[in-house]
Amino acid sequence: MERRLGLVIAGADPTGLALAKELLQCEDFSFVAYAGPEKATTLVSDVGIPRFSTRDLESALALPEADVVLVAEDLAHRAATLRRALQAEKHAICLFPPELVPEVCYEVTLAVEDARRMCVCLAPIVLHPGVQTLLRQLRAWPRDSLRHVALAYALNDADPLATSPVEALYQCCSFLLACSGSVAEVHALADYASGTLALPCTVSGRYQRGGLFQLLLTASERPAFSVEVATGAGQVTLQAPSFAAQPASLTTRTRTETFSVQYPATATPQVLAVAIAEQFRALRQVPQESQDDRGASASEKSKTTGRTAPGDIPHQFVGADWEHVIRSVELGEAILRSAQRKKAIALYEEDWDERAAFKSRMTVAGCLTLLACLALLFMGALLPALWYGIPLLLAVYLVLQLLHLVVPERKLARGQQRSATEPQEASRRLREPL
Asked: What is the rounded (10 degree) CA torsion for 34, 36, 42, 43?
C-alpha cells in the first residue's frame, strides 16, 4: 500500500521553499512541519505552503509522522542541519551543494550508511531535460572521443531563485564531471577571498581521458545559459536564454545529419521535484515499520519487502547519485583553491583498495617497531635489562606483517555496493597531489 512521506521543511532559502511547494503538490509527500526563522512567515505564505508552524528543528524531528527533512538552509548552516537530520534517522533532501568542502560529504556518506536512510542532493543544471539529453548523447558516442566542453552561465541578481556565484560554480562542476567523469587539471582566473567569489570567473582544464573544458561565469542583466560539446562523433549545443525559465534548444550535429529539439520552459523547482519524487518513490511502497526494522540486513529487507537499501535506489537521471555529488564538491574546492593561489592545480584519481591500505598501515607500524628495537639496543648499553624487550618487539613486528593474511577483508553492505551500470571511475576519489 502506498503512503505519503511526511515532509519537514528546515530553513527559509527561496529555492528550497519553492521546491517544497512543488513537492507538496505531488502525491509522494505531505506537509508535517516548518522549522525556520519567524521572519520567513511571509515568504512561506507566498510560495503556498499549506500550513505554517514555527518549530525548532529538534521538535520537528521528534514528530512521529516526519519521514523526510528538506534542508533549505543557507550554505553556512546547510551542513549542520543535514547532519542533524541524518542523526535523527530521517531521509534528507538537501540543496546543492551541501558544503564547500568534501569532508562534510564524506561524513554524510557514513551517516547515511549507518542510519540506512537516503540523502538526495541534486544539482539543478544537470537535471535540466536538455542537459540530460545531451549527457545521454555523449554516453552513446565513443567515450574517448570528447574534444572540448564550453559552458557559459550568466547570472542575474534580479532572479528570485538566483544562487550565489560559488553555488553556481559548484553546479557547473557537476555538469563538467557528468560529461567525462574525471578531471586531470584545473586553472581558475577569479578573485576569491573570505568565501566570496567575484565575477567574472573563468575556469579551464583538461580531462583524464583527453579533451579540454572551459567555464565562464559572468553577471549580466539578462541571464543566459549555453553549452557546447564537441566530440569526434559530432557536436551538441544547448542554448537557453534563461536557465530553466525559458524554452531551450538542443542541436545535435553529426557527419550525416543535423537535428534540433525544443524544450519548453520548466522552472528549476519543478525539475528538482520530479527527480526527487523518482528517487523516493520506492519508499512509498513500504510501511514505516519496515523502514525502521534495523535487525534484518539490507539484502534481506530487499528480498522480503521489495525495497532496496539506501544508495541502491535506481537513478533515472545522469549525475544524480551521491558519489557524483562528492566528486563535484571535490572539483569545486580545487577550483576555489586555484583561484586563491593564482595557479593551476593538477589532480589525480586514486582507487581505494582496502587491502593495500591495511598493508600500508601495518608497514608503518612495523617500521616504528624496528625503530623501537634500535632504541632499546642502544639504551641497553646503560641498562642491560632492556635487551630482553628486543625479542618481544621483533615478535610484534612479525605479527604485524602477517596480520593481513589472518584478518578477513571487510565485505561491503548492500547499501555500499555500487550499481553495475555506474562507471568504474565512480570508485575513485579526486585528490590533489602534495
From this structure: -90
